[in-house]
């Protein structure tokens, strides 16, 4: 597979656009990829939680949509979530009320303003955020088993 962002040693796990209507699909794809990479169930849940929180922030604050990318670099899973910025597209307000299904139960994920990035910082091994008016990009890194 080809690398992202000029990283020739990075294997792209997936690259998927999302919006408020596809957050459930995104969570399922992240769960599947993390499992394939050999992450234990508890760690897989943390990866899914981190990517979901970042994607929900992109929907609410970043123009209503975004793109999630996952790649493997040197024994680490890099999860990148980007958005076009608040001035782009039509910001959908439905996410703020917790729309979208959660962990396969059909129940909405709870939304509590201000806690998403705190959660992400606490479950990821590393966190890098590049916010701007023209769009934001957040990358979280998880060490893969055996490293």
Describe the structure.
- By secondary structure, the chain is α+β, with helices and mostly antiparallel strands.
- The chain has a single domain, classed as Histidine kinase-like ATPase, C-terminal domain (Heat Shock Protein 90, 2-Layer Sandwich), CATH 3.30.565.
- It has three helices and five strands, in the order βααββαββ.
- It has a five-stranded antiparallel sheet, covered by helices on one side.
- A hairpin with a 2-residue loop joins strand 2 and strand 3.
- Helix 1 packs antiparallel against helix 2.
- The chain is globular, with a radius of gyration of 14 Å.
- It starts with 10 loop residues before the first strand and ends with a strand.
Characteristic terms for this protein:
147 residues; Heat Shock Protein 90; 25% strand; 5 strands; 3 helices; alpha+beta; disordered N terminus
Give the SSE layout.
Layout: E1 11-19, H1 23-36, H2 41-61, E2 65-73, E3 76-82, H3 116-123, E4 126-130, E5 137-143
Antiparallel strand pairs: 1-2, 2-3, 3-5, 4-5
Query: What's the alpha carbon Rg, rounded to whole Å?
Result: 14 Å
| H/I helix tally | 3
Order of helices and strands: EHHEEHEE
| Beta-strand content bin | 25-35%
Overall helicity: 25-40%
CATH superfamily: Histidine kinase-like ATPase, C-terminal domain
Largest sheet: 5 strands, antiparallel
Number of strands: 5
Short description:
29% of the residues lie in helices and 25% in strands. It has helices spanning 23-36, 41-61, 116-123; strands at residues 11-19, 65-73, 76-82, 126-130, 137-143.
